[in-house]
Amino acid sequence: MCGLLKKVKGTILLDGKKQTAKKRVKQSYLVMQETGHQLFSDSVREEVVLGNHDSSEKSLQKIMKALDISDLADRHPMTLSGGQKQRVVIASACVCGKKILYFDEPTSGLDFSHMMQTCQLLKQLRKEDVFLFIITHDYELIASVCDSVIHIEDGRVQEQYLLDEAGIVKLQEFFS
Predict the structure, then answer these.
(1) How far apart are CA 59 and CA 4, in angstroms?
(2) What is the 8-class DSSP label of residue 106?
(3) Environment class of 24 (CB within 10 Å of its CB; exposed 0-12, middle 13-18, buried 19+)
(4) Cα separation, 128 vs 101, whole angstroms
(5) Least confident window among 40-44, 116-120, 137-141
(6) In this structure, how many other beta carbons lie within 10 angstroms of the beta carbon of residue 138?
């Protein structure tokens, strides 16, 4: 969906316009499940703003505070715990300025309080008209953040749900 693979079938529309793989790459940011594959800088601060020349110091500080990583700003990302690394990569996604964000198991390695901080941040991104695609087994995260759920098993869509603001799950019929 990010546009990284060339040999795929299907069409993706954004605001009613077909998106080529090249356009999707420019508009997308992927947070991988294995954070070690996307940490490259010598400090947390550098990592969070890597590739984003438009982020202000104020927005950087706000995101780092929201994810409880401000005190880690000068540390090398590879010296952090798994949950801290996860929050650094999520912070990078939040300040990247992209319209479409993909998260693969964003709460893995996070304790409950940091999971709730992450949920609040993801909800805020939704309010800012950022499209979020979250791949997860974390039902608490789904219930907190998602408004639509597609259950995929063995490469096939099994069920599709819509969640209303009260958290009530409504089964939506799916025709394959």
Answers:
(1) 28
(2) T
(3) middle
(4) 12
(5) 137-141
(6) 17
Give the pLDDT score at 90.
Answer: 94
Using DSSP, state whether 67 is helix, strand or coil: coil
Burial bucket for residue 106 (CB in 10 Å: 0-12, 13-18, 19+)? buried
Single out the residue of 114, 151, 109 nearest to residue 134, CA to CA. Answer: 151
Residue type, 157: V
Query: d(Cα 6, Cα 21) in Å, to the nearest integer?
Result: 7
Across 6-141, the runs of DSSP E, i.e. the strands, are 13-14, 17-18, 28-31, 100-104, 131-135
Q: String of b and e for 86-102 (b: at least 16 CB within 10 Å)?
A: bbbbbbbbbbbebebbb
Lookup result for tokens 């601060």:
45
pTM of the model: 0.86
